Amino acid sequence: MYTREAEKYIARIQSRYRCITIMGPRQSGKTTLSKKLFPDFDYFTFESPELRSRVLLDPKSFLKSLSSSILDEVQKVPELLSYVQEILDTPSDSRKLILTGSNNLLLHENISQSLAGRTRIIELFPLERTELPPEERSEDIYNTLFFGGYPRIFHQGLNPTEWLEDYYRTYVERDVRMLLNIGDLATFDRFIRLCAGRVGQLINYDSLASDAGISQPTAKSWLSVLQASYICFFLEPHYRNFNKRIIKSPKLYFTDTGLLCYLLRISSPDHLDTYPLIGSIFENWVISELKKRFHHQGRQAPLYFWRDQHGHEVDLIADRGTSLFPVEIKSVQTFQKSFIQTVTWLNTLQNSADGACVYGGDDTFHVRDIAVHSWKNLASLFPSDASL
Fold first, then answer.
1. pLDDT given for residue 322 in this prediction
2. Where are the chain's structural domains?
3. What digits encode the pLDDT tens for the residues 37-76?
4. Rounded mean pLDDT of 233-262?
5. Which of 61, 201, 247, 379 could bridge 307 with an S-S bond, Cβ 3.0-4.6 Å?
6. How far is CA 169 from CA 27, 82, 189, 219, in A?
7. In the CATH scheme, what is the code of domain 5-123?
8. DSSP string covering 243-259, please?
């Protein structure tokens, strides 16, 4: 059982909320974390068809019989949330509830209708590299990208390709089929693998739909469900234009680089050494790790990219409110001063001096005011609970 960054945040807020909702991808550790932090709570999972039928038949009776409880995969019984609202709105009722869910679309929609202002939402993603104990933490970048961060792979010493194949077939295809009623899974499989091949690129729905043999509205619908299921995410362009015409399309990334490697049919860590998309996969890992870190601390990730129509681009921007913190990302293991050209270029536009470069080498140092971080030292880029 791993110590999660989110534990500290939940410990701070649990006395202030009678209901906490933990959302995130399937198998990211939501149930394990809930049981660890609330060992005295009763546990119910709505993966069970029998329990779902029982609850839907008489939700009031079910909730009345509960003590403080963990209700797992609650998006499967959205009708229950309006009755949960009654519990939380009763001052004399001291029971506490932990809700978990793996579909952002279904759960957010129902929470906004029934539990708005009554529950605190935290998103739990696969393991950050720093959440692994040192003896399980690879010092090899290709291993790190290939294995990804799903806890069970590490906890049980599983072959990542085999486990991720089972994960994809069991959860991704099943959940997507449930949401979209897809009859032809082969077409969907081609679509998601085409998405993987476009990692780190601007989203072009016309091109994606054409290559997958589907309509543009279908491509948008399928991609929105992959987002809602925490399979992939968008990195939005920053809106500040510095009097330049900027790109307004988001970029596509995957929550877990292990699953990304599986979808790209990468068969081993060594395969990554010469893989043509290694730069994009490494960039995906850096951005995903930082996104996890913010969310596990209960903070929204103020992360963007910046690109104008003349080709000037900064891989990652952290919005500090008063200024933008630019980060350039390079997978190569030998640092070159040219890596920070776009960082200094953006700083000239905004009359600032700092920023960072994350690269695939081992050393961490400064070049003037620019911090150069080894990928192994990524967590120090934005330390826990430190303001940007």
1. 83
2. 5-123, 129-380
3. 999 999 999 999 999 999 999 999 999 999 999 999 998 8
4. 89
5. 247
6. 13, 33, 10, 20
7. 3.40.50.300
8. TS-B----EEEES-HHH
